[in-house]
Design brief:
Blueprint (H helix, E strand, L loop, with lengths): L2 H8 L12 H7 L4 H33 L11 H18 L5
Length: about 100
């Protein structure tokens, strides 16, 4: 079950709104009873909004990757930092302790 479906079932807030439909969509919706019609419309809106939110997050992530933030290294090279991390992890494995 998607997050959209879960949120629809969890919150049953009720309000009325005007929705302009194409003639074809109106005819197809008229084949459903009111409860199913409402559920279908809410689910479709929730799924579309979820897709839009995912797209916005994707664009935000991609723009962040285009302009990565540089963090100062305080003069420590990547190689030295990696060597220190590996050495510390090796010691932890050998002694069975964790550094704090």
């Amino acid at each position: 079950m998607s997050a959209a479906q879960t949120s629809i079932q969890e919150t049953a807030a009720k309000f009325k709104t005007t929705l302009y439909l194409t003639e074809e969509n109106k005819k197809r919706l008229d084949l459903l009873n009111a409860k199913n019609r409402t559920r279908l419309i809410n689910q479709a809106i929730a799924e579309k909004l979820e897709a839009i939110e995912r797209q916005l997050l994707k664009e935000k992530l991609l723009s962040a990757l285009d302009a990565p933030v540089s963090h100062p290294s305080n003069g420590v090279s990547t190689e030295d930092a990696l060597h220190e991390i590996r050495q510390r992890e090796t010691e932890q494995l050998l002694t069975g302790s964790k550094s704090e």
